């Protein structure tokens, strides 16, 4: 019989991995709440049109990476490859535009069919925030500051650099697009077939090409910053000024772009050199045209997403598992009392390990394997006296504690 294995590009989150994931998610949720972001959850699959409209029919995600299928009712569905489109769809379908501005935090699994490698999986997990209904550069500053604060909370900020660039407004973008078409048109015969296809439809996507020949041409391409009008320059200056005021370091990256037309003004990434090729740990930007492109009302938006796996890999060590209290019955007559005590302590908020069988020696060995902090021994003498013997498993000391005072005594071990 063939040994069953996880699907390529997926993996099990065993307890230590799960503690790392929880550390990232819980830190992100707590910090996001401080900034006023409320947690939401969207379905893990949507009508395929949700992502085709937002990611573009010619994007690599849509053409090569989406897990799409037709259900029994004949509907075309897709496992979500990212979270922003689902949040935007929720705003439209839920009629939430009347409540703007809205601030959302989310986390959960995403799915993309791509070559698995370190920090890149086919089922991966993200945290993200979206700020909807705020057109001012203060929104960009707040979104970036939230991300930076989460990285700082995780102890990672000193190993990560914020890179940002301006994509300008629609006028600036059109001016840059015209210049790109002129430039790449002069190198058409040297471009890859994919980039030649993109030249008329979306020349900005050529800037993201992975083809080595394309990359050499891109290296000499005009810079977005040279085509920004004054309004766009002022917007970007307000963003960088806000980051300066908050003491958040950054570097301007003139080659940082987003290929889709609904992106504008600020684009940013938090990058690290500690994960090899997969150096981006958080990426985002302003997408004022997205919701309108999906059929909703014109609604400014800005946000970011971050891969939980990548952040978890950067944690110095996994958070420790919660240390339990071990309840150890000594003799058959203590079994019932031990069961009741364990249940009572769990209701009081303690993590308790009772065990299922074995003599005192075996149960104490198991308690040590589980890194229990304390063992409560219950034998014939303890039952008669209404007490337990409390053994500190770190110090090796023990004492007798009355049952009615036990919860107060255990507070030090919670």
UniProtKB/TrEMBL annotation:
What are its E.C. numbers?
A: 6.1.1.21
- The Aminoacyl-transfer RNA synthetases class-II family profile domain is annotated at 1-324
Q: What cellular component terms from Gene Ontology apply here?
A: cytoplasm
The record's section on InterPro entries has: aa-tRNA-synth_II, aa-tRNA-synth_II/BPL/LPL, Anticodon-bd, Anticodon-bd_dom_sf, His-tRNA-ligase, HisRS-like_core, HisRS/HisZ, HisRS_anticodon
Q: Which reaction does it catalyse?
A: tRNA(His) + L-histidine + ATP = L-histidyl-tRNA(His) + AMP + diphosphate + H(+)
What compartments host this protein?
A: Cytoplasm
According to its UniProt entry, the protein's GO biological process terms are:
histidyl-tRNA aminoacylation
Q: How does it assemble?
A: Homodimer.
Q: What is the protein's name according to its record?
A: Histidine--tRNA ligase
Q: From which lineage does this chain's organism come? A: Bacteria, Pseudomonadati, Pseudomonadota, Alphaproteobacteria, Rhodospirillales
């Amino acid at each position: 019989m063939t040994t069953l294995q996880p699907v390529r590009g997926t993996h099990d989150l065993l307890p230590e991995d799960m503690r790392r994931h929880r550390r990232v998610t819980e830190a992100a949720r707590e910090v996001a709440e401080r900034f006023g972001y409320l947690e939401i959850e969207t379905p893990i699959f949507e009508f395929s049109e949700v992502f085709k409209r937002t990611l573009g029919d010619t994007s690599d995600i849509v053409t090569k990476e989406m897990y799409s299928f037709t259900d029994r009712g004949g509907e075309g569905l897709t496992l979500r490859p990212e979270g922003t489109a689902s949040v935007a769809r929720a705003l439209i379908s839920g009629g939430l535009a009347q409540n703007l501005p809205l601030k959302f935090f989310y986390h959960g699994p995403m799915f993309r069919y791509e070559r698995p490698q370190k920090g890149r999986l086919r089922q991966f997990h993200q945290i993200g925030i979206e700020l909807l209904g705020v057109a001012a550069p203060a929104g960009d500053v707040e979104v970036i500051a939230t991300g930076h604060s989460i990285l700082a909370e995780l102890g990672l900020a000193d190993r990560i650099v914020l890179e940002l660039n301006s994509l300008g407004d629609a006028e600036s973008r059109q001016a840059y697009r015209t210049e790109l078409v002129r430039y790449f048109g002069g190198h058409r015969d040297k471009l890859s077939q994919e980039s030649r296809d993109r030249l008329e439809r979306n020349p900005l996507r050529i800037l993201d090409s992975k083809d080595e020949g394309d990359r050499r041409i891109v290296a000499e391409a005009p810079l977005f910053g040279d085509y920004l009008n004054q309004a766009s320059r002022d917007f970007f200056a307000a963003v960088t000024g806000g980051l300066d005021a908050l003491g958040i370091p950054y570097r301007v990256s003139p080659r940082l772009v987003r290929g889709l037309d609904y992106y504008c003004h600020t684009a940013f990434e938090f990058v690290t050199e500690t994960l090899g090729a997969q150096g981006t740990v958080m990426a985002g930007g302003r997408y004022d045209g997205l919701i309108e492109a999906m059929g909703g009302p014109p609604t400014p938006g800005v946000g970011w997403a971050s891969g939980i796996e990548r952040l978890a890999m950067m944690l110095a060590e996994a958070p420790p598992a919660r240390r339990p209290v071990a309840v150890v019955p000594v003799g058959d007559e203590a079994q019932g009392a031990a069961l009741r005590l364990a249940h009572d302590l769990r209701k009081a908020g303690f993590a308790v390990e009772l065990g299922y069988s074995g003599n005192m020696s075996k149960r104490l060995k198991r308690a040590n394997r589980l890194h229990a902090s304390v063992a409560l021994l219950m034998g014939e003498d303890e039952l008669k006296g209404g007490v337990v013997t409390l053994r500190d498993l770190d110090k090796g000391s023990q004492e007798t504690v009355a049952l009615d005072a036990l919860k107060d005594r255990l507070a030090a071990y919670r």
